[in-house]
Amino acid sequence: MVLTKRIIPCLDIKDGRVVKGTNFLGLKDAGDPVELASRYNAQGADEVVFLDITASKEGRGALIDVIRRAADELFLPLTVGGGINTIDDMQNLLRAGADKVSINTGGVKNPDIITKGAEKFGKQCIVAAIDVRRNNEMREGATVIEMPDGSRCWYEVVIYGGSKPTGIDAIQWAKEAESRGAGEILLTSMETDGVKQGFDIPVTSMISSEVKIPVIASGGVGKLEHFYDGFVYGRADACLAASVFHFGEMTVADVKEYLAKKGVAVRL
């Protein structure tokens, strides 16, 4: 049985509205999250990801409300992330209707939350979201990746919406997250986010080959070919995109039809 590749629209949410920027900056309003998610549901999306990008305490109530509305109206899996720091945070989102929770900064600062979340809710509910940035300053112990232009770098985990470097090697962190019970990795490269030049293939391919759990490629879609590259060269199990869907440049159905013609197994 061939596992189908998933196409996942991502909705970055701030103050209850969907926003989109470039390299996590310059945010533009893109609409109501449940209306957009309903559109993607109709287009054949395999899942939808909601990310509370400011994840402030006052915004958490607004996000819970969005999840409840979405869970009532949609018939596809919902992954929710942003500001998850405790088991209670996870439980509140899962109770509101989320199928999976995506843990980023909270998991880096307190890796035990991944372990405990997987034990309490099951691995299938826990997504380790990893934001990375290229670092050209070589250091001992880091996993060196050779780039297409022949340069060499390692990928550093960044937290707080990409604003704070951690010194943690991304490949090693992905493997630790898997060993702690994460059922999936959502990988976003800061270099490619919102730039529309394609996914960061070197790091996506490396992490996909180093872990046994599914990897979702995120950050950089500008045209249909980028999805193909993410699956074939990045070895991703799913590809996530935002602005190309939000602003009507392509539909989920367009992507799946294109991939099917190229021989990539998708759910039509």
Automatic annotation (TrEMBL):
Stated name of the protein: Imidazole glycerol phosphate synthase subunit HisF
Catalytic activities: 5-[(5-phospho-1-deoxy-D-ribulos-1-ylimino)methylamino]-1-(5-phospho-beta-D-ribosyl)imidazole-4-carboxamide + L-glutamine = D-erythro-1-(imidazol-4-yl)glycerol 3-phosphate + 5-amino-1-(5-phospho-beta-D-ribosyl)imidazole-4-carboxamide + L-glutamate + H(+)
InterPro entries: Aldolase_TIM, His_biosynth, HisF, IGPS_HisA/HisF, RibuloseP-bd_barrel
Coiled coil stretches, renumbered: none
Active-site residues annotated for this sequence: 12, 131
HAMAP family in UniProt: HisF
Membership in a protein family: Belongs to the HisA/HisF family.
